[in-house]
Amino acid sequence: MKKYFLLIALAGLSACNTGYHLTNRTANRIGVDSVTAPADSGVANFLKPYRQGLDKTMNEVLTRSTGRIEKGQPEGPLNDLLTDALLQQASQRYGKPIDCAHLNYGGIRNNLPEGNITTGSIFEVMPFDNQLVVLTVTGTMMQQLLNHFADGNKLVIGGLRAKIHEGKVQSVQFTNGRTLQPNETYTVAMSDYVAEGGDNAGFLKNPVKRENINYLIRDALIDYFRQQGKTGQPINPLSDGRISIE
């Protein structure tokens, strides 16, 4: 595939003389390919060890799956798997239990394959360098978070079960046994992108507390899948019904 650079010739224009003005412009396409710009063997040899190291890292098999793991709305096996992974890894890093974990649906950029799941697979799912942060929020803000993402069936959550009616969350049951009460506080592991108001979640900019745990979401997922691989048991892609529509 050729890549093109746009060459623009501007006639009669001078940045130094304000009395001039643009009178004409022309454009030509200059094709750049392996013929016009052959590979530099010296550069290729210089980069070879770095490329080999990158390939080795990206091709590391972390675990296996018995089937393709896909995201979905209002729920999908990948939604559940990723948020459960984040909840586990965030709690370990945080040093104490966290109530739930959240991911923005649009931030999940790919599905996971059947068979080998490699480091490269995780990079395809989560290519962004988003940090995992822990927010402490009131029950009222937690309800607002759930409602915000439930509207449009984009609620991707781990650590709780929710029923949605007409775009609003009507009931919440945390897997740790807690119930959602307006005046109580809850901890949520999530992307710094959402915590800073991404996905129109500006209401999260003023939580009770925000704690950065210096852990990339992608690294948390890689660590989780590597741990799963060490168990010798493949992943079975299933949804557990945590999100239901009434």
Automatic annotation (TrEMBL):
What the entry lists under Pfam families is as follows: 5_nucleotid_C
Q: Know the name of this protein?
A: 5'-nucleotidase C-terminal domain-containing protein
Q: Which InterPro entries does UniProt cross-reference here?
A: 5'-Nucleotdase_C, 5'-Nucleotdase_C_sf, 5_nucleotidase/apyrase
Tell me the PROSITE patterns matching this sequence: PROKAR_LIPOPROTEIN
Enumerate the spans annotated as 5'-Nucleotidase C-terminal domain: 70-201
